[in-house]
Known about the structure:
The structure is a single chain. It is built from four helices and six strands; from the N terminus they run ββββαβααβα. Helix content is 29%, strand content 26%. The protein has a six-stranded mixed sheet. The relative contact order is 0.20. The protein has helices at residues 61-81, 94-103, 106-109, 128-132; strands spanning 7-12, 16-22, 29-37, 43-44, 87-92, 112-117. Mean pLDDT is 80; it is low at 41-59 and 134-138.
Amino acid sequence: MRHDETIWLVIADSARARLIAADPPLPRYRPVADYHRDIAGAEAPDRLFDRPVATASLDSTVTADHAFTHRIAAALDQAAEQHQYRSLVLVAPAPLLHDLSSALQPATMLLVQAGLAQDLTRVADQDLPGLLESPPSQ
């Protein structure tokens, strides 16, 4: 698959995020990575990325939210540097969408094609096309 045609979708809420590649011909989705944060605030292991995982509880929910958001942003920044995708679509509730956008590096932000302030984390991949055909920019 040519990375210069691939679009990555970030479907997230404050407890979980999944990265999905939309490869041409659209819509053809494949999972890239899943992130989960447990209730205590420590992050659960990623399914596909091989990265260290925090095991101690964090002091506050705000700190945990910040760490979780920045962990996702760091993965997106790294993938952008490696040209793993052409553009990025962010889908998350409005506060998280703002925090995630703020955490991305400027070069990654240039790849953001759209943002949708909505929680679609419980929507199955095969049901996403109708909901994401033309997401509004944020």
